Amino acid sequence: MSFVSPLFLWYFMPAVLIAVLVCPRSWRNGIIAVGSLLFYTIGAGGFVFLLLGCMVVNFLAGPLLAPSPWDVHGLRRRRILIAVVSLDVAVLLVWKYAGFATQQIAAVAHWFGGSVPVASLVVPIGISFYTFHHISYVVDIYRGERQALRNPVAFAAYIAMFPQLVAGPIVRYREIADQLPQLRSHRLDDIAAGFPRFALGLCKKTIIADSLGPLVDACFKVPSDQMTFATAWVGAIAYTLQLFFDFSGYSDMAIGLGRMLGFRLPENFARPYSAVTITEFWRRWHMSLSRWFRDYVYIPLGGNRHGAARTYRNLCIVFVLTGFWHGAQWTFLVWGCYHGALLVIERRFALDMDPATPWKRYLRRALTMLLVVIGWVFFRSPDLGHALSMLGHMLIPDFDGLGAGVEQAFTNQRLVLLLAAMAVFVLPAHPVTGPLLESSRSRPATALRIGVMTVGLLYAAILIATGTFSPFLYYQF
C-alpha cells in the first residue's frame, strides 16, 4: 500500500487521522500501532510475523539493557546487547543478502566444475529500516541515553509507525522517546501543520518524479552497443532528478504524516544538490541514514579521534556498509566505495573546506554535482558492465543523437526535466521562497501556500486516479 495509491489516500489515511482526532488522546499510540501493522500486512503479507518476532525480542531485551547496580562492570548487559544486535543483523543478512552470497559462491564453484544451490528469498519490505530502528532502540538504552519502554503499545508505535516503516526517515530512538508518552493537546494544529508538508511530497512524487520515470527507464534500457553520448547524459541527469524528487517527496510525506499523528520526525533532506563538497552532500542527503551510521558505526570505530589513517579506514568501512545497505549488488558496493574514496580524498587534501570566494563556490558546487551524477550511474545501472559502458559514453562526445525510443520519451518530458533541473541546480541553497511558503503567520503567505498546494493536489489526484503513478524508488531497499 503506497502513499500514492487510492487505497491509502482515500481510505486508510483518512480513517487513521479521524480515529486519532476523535478518540481519547490516550488511544493515539494504540491506533497508530494497530493501523501500522495493518498497513504493513497489506503490503508485506506474512512477513508481518517476522517484524512482530523481531519486535518481541527487542522489546523484552530493552529493560535488561538498562544500567543496573547488580552489574557494575556491565558484562551481562554487554552480552545481551551483542546477542540482540547480532540477531537483528542476522535477520537482515539472511533475508536480504543470502541470495547474493550464494550466487557468488555458486559462481566460484562453477569455475572448479562444481555446483552450489542458490538461495531465492523474497526481501521483506522495509526490513533495512526497521532493523536499524531496533538496533537504535537497544543501543540507546544500553548507553543510558533513554529508558526502556515498558508499554508494548508505545514500542509498537515507534517501530511500526507507518509513515516511516518502509522507507524512512530512520528515526533514532532518542529522537522520539520523549514524544511517545506525551498526550497531544493541539491535534487540529498538528494536522494543519502536517498536511501541507504531506501535500508537497505528494506533488514532488506524482508530478515530477513519476513524470521523469519513463525517460529514465528508456535511457537505462538502451543496450551498451547502442548507447550514445546524449542518451547517457540525459539518462544520468534525469535519474539524478527523479531520485531526489521521489525520495525527498516520500520523506516530506512521511514527516507530514508523522506531524499529523503528533510526532516530529527528523528531516531527511536539505537541498543536497546545492552542496559544495561531497562531505557537505552527505550532511544534506538522506541525513537520517548518515546520522545513524555516524552514531552507531563511525564513532564506535573511533571516528576521527585516532589519527588520519584510522579516520580513512573508518570512513571506508562506513561507506562500504552504506553501499551494501542499499542492496545486495556489486553496483551498490562500488557506489559506496566511490563515495568513501571521495570523502577520503577531500579530507586528505583539505578539500572539504568551504571556499572563501563566490566563484570558487560555484565551481566546487558544479564539480560536486558532476561527481554525484557519476555515482548515480552505478546506483541505477543493472550491473557493473552497463554502468561502465554508460560512463564511457558520457566521456566520449558523438553526434548519434538519442535514438527513437529515448527521443520520444525525452520530447514528452522535456519541460518537466528543464523545470526540475532549474529548481535543483539553479536556485540558491536557501531559496527566498522558503520562509514565504512555510510561514503560517502571514495571511499572504498562507493564501499562497493554500493556492499552490490546492492546484498541485488536484493535478496529483488526477494522475493517481488515472493510474499514472509508480512505487517509491526506496521501497526496494
Automatic annotation (TrEMBL):
It comes from the Bacteria. It is a multi-pass membrane protein. Its main location: membrane. One of its GO terms (cellular component) is plasma membrane. One of its GO terms (biological process) is alginic acid biosynthetic process. The keyword Metal-binding does not apply. The chain crosses the membrane at residues 7-27, 39-60, 80-98, 110-132, 153-171, 230-250, 315-342, 362-379, 415-432, 452-475. GO terms for molecular function: acyltransferase activity. It is found in: Cell membrane. Keywords: Acyltransferase, Cell membrane, Membrane, Transferase, Transmembrane, Transmembrane helix. The keyword Chaperone does not apply. Belongs to the membrane-bound acyltransferase family. This is Alginate O-acetyltransferase complex protein AlgI. The lineage of its organism: Bacteria, Bacillati, Actinomycetota, Actinomycetes, Pseudonocardiales.
